[in-house]
Design brief:
Radius of gyration: 17 Å
Oligomer: single chain
Organism: Streptomyces bluensis
InterPro entries: Phosphatase_SCO2771 (IPR031423)
Pfam family, one: Phosphatase
Protein name: Phosphatase
Low-confidence stretches: none
Structural class: alpha/beta
C-alpha cells in the first residue's frame, strides 16, 4: 500500500490521509480533551519533560494551540467522537524540520536521535540518522550503563530507546533524555547540537537548552506548547502509531528529499 519513491507534496497529503497518519485519525476526541485537561491541571506525566509552570492552566488555551498547530477541532463543545490532524500542517512542519536537518548537515553537527514510540517511529529516526551520517554529521553515541526507574537507556540502529524486560518500551518520560545528557556531561563530552526525537526525549532536550525537533500526536499537547514558546524548534503533528510502520516511509522520503539528504 505505501507509495514508493519520493512523493510530491500533494501525493504525501493524500497518503497521510489514506493511512490515517493525518486527517481523520484514530485518537478519539475525548482522549485528546482528557490529556489537555491533565496537562492544564499540572499532571507532569503529560508535560513530556518540559517545565510549563503555571503558563498553561486553562485547557481552552491548550485547545486553541492544538487547533492552530495540529488542526484538531477548535469547538470546545465537541467532546466525543472523531478528531483530526490537518495533513497540510503535517507536511509544512516536515518542511520546517527539513530545513533544520539541512543546517545540521551543512555544519556537520552532532545529532542525537531518540524515540519513546519505537513501535511506530524507530525506523523514521533510523533512516534520518543514516542520511545525516552520510552527509557528514556525527551521530551521538550515548554513554553505557544508563538507566531510569522505568528501565535501561539503550541505543539501537543509532536511536536511543528505553529497554525493559528485553522489550523496547513506550515512554512519555523525559528521564531517559536527562540520563543521556547528564551522562555526556559527566564524561566531559559535548552535548548534541541537535536532538531529533519525540515525547519526553524531545521535550527534556529542548528544556535543557539543546536544539530539539520532533514528532507528536494530537493527544500529546506539551511539545506543541513548547514549540509555540520556542523551547522546541519544530514539532510535526501525526498519529505516532498507525497499523504499519511502513506507512511512514513516504513521509520519511519526503523529509529527506526536502532536506537535500537523498543519495543519488
Amino acid at each position: 500500500m505505501p507509495i514508493s519513491g519520493t512523493p510530491s507534496r500533494a501525493e504525501l497529503v493524500d497518503h497521510l490521509v489514506r493511512t490515517r497518519i493525518a486527517g481523520d485519525v484514530a485518537t478519539p476526541r475525548e482522549n485528546n480533551l482528557s490529556h489537555y485537561r491533565q496537562l492544564a491541571n499540572g499532571n507532569r506525566h503529560y508535560w513530556l519533560g518540559l517545565e510549563l509552570g503555571d503558563r498553561w492552566t486553562d485547557e481552552q488555551d491548550v485547545l486553541a494551540v492544538m487547533a492552530e498547530r495540529v488542526g484538531v477541532n477548535d469547538d470546545a463543545e465537541h467532546r466525543y467522537g472523531q478528531d483530526t490532524i490537518d495533513p497540510e500542517l503535517t507536511v509544512s512542519a516536515l518542511e520546517r524540520m527539513a530545513a533544520r536537518l539541512r543546517k545540521a548537515a551543512d555544519g556537520e553537527q552532532r545529532v542525537l536521535f531518540a524515540t519513546g514510540h519505537p513501535g511506530g517511529l524507530l525506523d523514521v529516526h533510523r533512516a534520518t540518522a543514516a542520511a545525516l551520517r552520510a552527509a557528514g554529521c556525527e551521530i551521538v553515541v550515548i554513554p553505557d550503563g544508563l538507566q531510569t526507574e522505568e528501565g535501561y537507556v539503550m541505543q539501537f540502529a543509532d536511536v536511543a530507546v528505553l529497554e525493559h524486560g528485553a522489550t523496547l518500551w513506550h515512554t512519555h518520560s523525559g528521564e531517559p533524555m536527562k540520563a543521556i545528557l547528564t551522562g555526556l556531561e559527566r564524561e566531559g563530552r559535548p552535548l548534541p547540537d541537535l536532538v531529533v526525537a519525540d515525547h519526553g526525549w524531545a521535550g527534556y532536550a529542548g528544556q535543557h537548552g539543546v536544539d530539539s525537533v520532533g514528532y507528536a500526536d494530537c493527544n500529546d499537547p506539551a511539545l506543541f506548547l513548547a514549540e509555540s514558546e520556542g523551547t522546541v524548534q519544530v514539532v510535526v503533528p501525526l498519529d505516532d502509531h498507525v497499523v504499519s510502520p511502513r506507512h511512514y516511509d513516504p513521509m520519511t522520503a519526503y523529509l529527506l528529499d526536502q532536506a537535500g539528504l537523498v543519495q543519488d
